[in-house]
C-alpha cells in the first residue's frame, strides 16, 4: 500500500506524525479506504445441531434463517464433530448500493458518501450486524422475537464477524506488537479495519500517553525540589527533635506517644506537600485543558480526512432501517413522565447505595483500628493500628470498586433500556452518562471523605465523636491528613493496575487457548489453500471446506464483543468530550480543595505572615517557620474530668514508663475550655479565599489555553468549505447535464408542431 501522491496531510496530522503518535507513512490516504473483497463472509451465526428436527428451537432457527435469506446470502456449514452448525452470511452488493445512495441524499451524512465509494470492511459488518439485530420472527404467541431473544432461548449460540487474515496480519506487524510502540500507530489502517470509533479511541490513547510525558517531567521536578530542601526544613527539624508528648490515638490500649516518632512520615509528607505542589496543581489543571483542546483539534482533523465530520448516528440509523426494510415506519420520539420518574428514583437509590458503601468503609476502618490495637499480638501493628486500618480500608475500597463496576454496568444498561430511547445512539449516550455518575461516586466517595472530612469531625480530647457511643471516630495520620490520602490512593492504584493488567492479559489468552484446544483437528491446512493465500487474493477466490471450518473455529474462539466492549476505556466520543470537560472542571475544584483543606499549605502561610517570628517584620537571621509545629498543637490536661473520661491512667504512661499530666493534639483550640481559637477562624477564612482565588486564576488560564487552541484547525475548515463547494458544483453540473437533453427534446417537439401548424394554415389559405 502506498501513500496517495499529491495528498497533503493537515497540520494536526503532521504534528502527530512528528511526535510519533501516529504513523501514516506508507499507508492509505485517510479519505478513501482500500477496496476489500472478503475472502469468506461478513458475519456468522452459530447454533447447536439438534437431533429433533421438529423441536420448537429448530423451527425457530429455520424460520429466522429463512427470513434472513430474503435479505442476505447464507451458506450453511455443519461440524458434526463439535455438534455445531455455522450459518455464514454475505450481504449482496445491492444492499451497499442502497446504503451509499441514501447517504448521498441524506441531510447530515451526505458529505460522507464521497468516502463510501468502496465500503470498508468495518462498515460492511456494521450494516450486516444491524440487519441481523433488526430481523424478527413471530412466535406462536404473536410476539416478535429478535436475535437477542433467540439467543437467550438457546436457538442460536453466538454470532461474530470474521477477521480477514491478511489485514489482521498486517496490523499485527505494524501495530499490535511491543516492538511497534515507538513507531506510531497506523490509525487510518485501524479505522479501515476496525471502524472509526475504535480508531479514534486509539488515537486518543496515543495522544494522552504522549502528553503524560511533560506532566511526569514536571511532577518529577517538583518531587526533586521537595527532596532537595526537606533536609534543611525547620519543620522537619522541629518534628524530629521534638519532646512533645501526643495524646493516645485510640481507646484503652493506645498510649501517649512522642511527636518525634513521626519523623520519617513528616519527611515523606513534606515531599508531596510543599510550595511546588501548588504550582504543579495549577499546571495540571491547565494541562487538562491543553490536552482536551488539542484532542478536539486532532479529532476534527481525522474525522474531516475520513469525511465523517458531519456524521449523524441517528440519521445513519434511519438509513440502516430503510436498508433493512424499505417499508419501515419511523420510531417516533416519545417522552414518558412515568418512565423518567422511575429512572430518576432508581438512579437516586443507586447513588444512596454507593454512598452507603462509603459509610460502611468508614465504620469498618474505625472498628478495625480498635480490634487491631486491642487484639493484635504484634506490637508493630498495635502501635500503628490506625495506619494498618487505613491500608485495609484501601484494599476494601479497591474490592468495592471492582465489584461495583460490574453492578454499575448492569444497572446503567437496564435503566437505559427502561427509558426506551428512539435510537441506539441515544441509548449509548444515556448509558454513558449514568455509568459515569455511578463510577464517579463509587471511586471517589471514600477518597472525598478521607481528603475533606477525616480528622475534622472526630472531636477532641474530652469530647470525641463516637459511632453508637462506643467506637471513637478515626483521626488523621500523625504526620497530617494528606498522608492518609496518599496511602489510600497509592494502594488502590497499585492494586488496580496490577490485577487489572493480569486479568486483561491472562483472561483472554486462557479463553482462546481453551477454545483452540477443542479445534486442534483443523490445524493442518491443505497445500492448495496455503498457496492461494500466499498469492495475491483475487475476487471470488474461495477456500476449501476444511479450511473454511478452520477459519470459522479460529474466529469462534475469540472474545465476544459488542458496542459496549470498549466502554471502560473510551467510547461514544460525542458524549465523552463533554464528560472530559466536566472532569477538567472537577479537577480544578478538587485541586483547590485538596490544597486549601487537606494540605498544610494555608496554615503555614498564615503562620508565616501573622503568627510566626516574621509576623512583626523586625525579625532577622531566623527562619520564618520556626515554631510552626508547636503552634498547630493544643494541650489537653489530665486534670480535666472530661479528659479522664476518654483516657485511662494506663494510657497516660509513656513506653519508657513516665507518667504525664498533659498531652498535645493537632487542632486550634483553647487549653481551658476546648473552644476554637481566633487563629482557627483566620485559617478557615484564608482557606476559603485561597480556594476561590485558585479556581478563578486556573479557570482564566484554562479559558486562555482553550482560546489559543482552535477546536477545528483552519486547514480543516477551509478543506470542508472547498469540498462542499466542489460537491455543490458537481451536483449543479449533473443537473444541467440531465436538463440539456430534455430541453433539446422539448425544443425539437415545439419546432415540429409549429411547422405542422404552418402547413395546415397554408393549405387552408390555398383553398
Automatic annotation (TrEMBL):
Specify where the region named Disordered lies, as residue ranges. 743-767
Where it sits in the cell: the answer is:
Cell membrane; Membrane
TM region positions: 201-225, 277-295, 341-368, 388-411, 431-454
Q: Give the record's membrane topology.
A: Multi-pass membrane protein
The UniProt record lists the Anoctamin transmembrane domain at 190-573
Q: Which InterPro entries match?
A: Anoct_dimer (IPR032394), Anoctamin (IPR007632), Anoctamin_TM (IPR049452)
UniProt keyword Transmembrane helix present: yes
One GO molecular-function annotation for this sequence? protein dimerization activity
> What are the GO cellular component annotations?
plasma membrane
Q: Which UniProt keyword terms apply here?
A: Cell membrane, Glycoprotein, Membrane, Transmembrane, Transmembrane helix
Domain called Anoctamin dimerisation: residue spans: 116-187
Q: Where is the composition biased (Basic residues)?
A: 756-767
| Membrane as UniProt keyword | yes
Report the principal subcellular site.
membrane
Concerning its family, UniProt says:
Belongs to the anoctamin family.
Name under which the protein is recorded? Anoctamin
Q: Provide the species name.
A: Cyprinus carpio (Common carp)
Gene this chain is encoded by: LOC109080871
